[in-house]
Amino acid sequence: xxxxxxxxxxxxxxxxxxxxxxxxxxxxxxxxxxxxxxxxxxxxxxxxxxxxxxxxxxxxxxxxxxxxxxxxxxxxxxxxxxxxxxxxxxxxxxxxxxxxxxxxxxxxxxxxxxxxxxxxxxxxxxxxxxxxx
Length: 133
Fold this sequence. Notes:
This protein has 133 residues and is mainly α. The protein has eight helices and no strands. The longest helix has 16 residues, at 110-125.
């Protein structure tokens, strides 16, 4: 992603990340292809070779979720000031996102809501702690 922060959920699991970093590079890559371990595990589970295809994008339907089932959960999490302190974030950013909860604003800010919600929700359910750099 050229100009944004990308959040990959498996990399938020510190034990998984530490275990992966202990493996030699040949376990991660096969030639120029990455994700060797993932392909091997999936092939074992499926019992057949995994076809190779180009990457494709995947977009979550944030606007639909925001207008329906997830809106109360997202506003509760983003409005929870206690989640900001461990991440050393300013709660006013979340307050700004929630200031105008109109459908038009939610539609325009859907991706911001989504990314911010995922980060705070993970903080809410993790035991990770952070310090200043």
